[in-house]
Design a protein that fits this description.
The protein has 162 residues and is of the alpha+beta class. Helices cover 31% and strands 33% of the residues. The chain has two domains: 55 residues, no CATH class; 103 residues, Immunoglobulin-like. Strand 1 and strand 2 form a beta hairpin. It is rod-shaped.
């Protein structure tokens, strides 16, 4: 009555393997485009940022704190291999800590390698800090503030107007 034959087991096995391989290739291509490549790009950006911060090095040529502890001034030399867009001064005192960015207006400047920048006087709130015991200066690059390599200054001039 029914004289129909199915496909042979060998052909069925080959078709099943081909279907499985095709499905694997489609899924792996999707995963690579949506998960792996963005992760690699993000990782590459983080590595670039870390390398920029490792290359950003500063030296403090001169520093002073006003004798009323209401202002600090530093002259910073860029001794690294990358351009700096500013720096942050952290005044550590007997009663607290206060951080100020230079330039103070939020703009960017360029401090080329082997260049010096004078910060002018940056005001701090003496009531928050107390007597300034040290200054920490952090370099800033295009990607942000480099917190890994600050310069700490403990010996600075105390002048009425610096």
């Amino acid at each position: 009555m029914f004289n129909k034959r199915g496909i042979s087991p060998l052909i069925a096995s080959v078709l099943l393997i081909a279907f499985t391989v095709t499905l694997f290739l489609i899924i792996s291509s999707f995963v690579q485009r949506s998960i792996v490549e963005p992760g690699l790009d993000e990782g590459g950006e983080k590595i670039d940022n870390a390398l920029d911060c490792l290359s950003a090095r500063i030296d403090v040529a001169e520093s002073c704190v006003q004798n009323a502890n209401d202002g600090v001034r530093v002259k910073v030399d860029n001794i690294g291999d990358v351009e700096l867009t500013g720096f942050q001064i952290r005044a550590v005192g007997s009663t607290g800590v206060e951080s100020k960015r230079f330039p103070t207006d939020g703009s960017s400047i360029v401090i080329a390698p082997l260049d010096r920048k004078d910060s002018l006087v940056i005001s701090i709130v003496a009531a928050n800090v107390g007597t300034v015991t040290s200054l920490e200066i952090f370099p800033e690059v295009d990607n942000g503030l480099c917190r890994s390599n600050p310069v700490v200054v403990k010996n600075f001039d105390k002048k009425a107007s610096c």
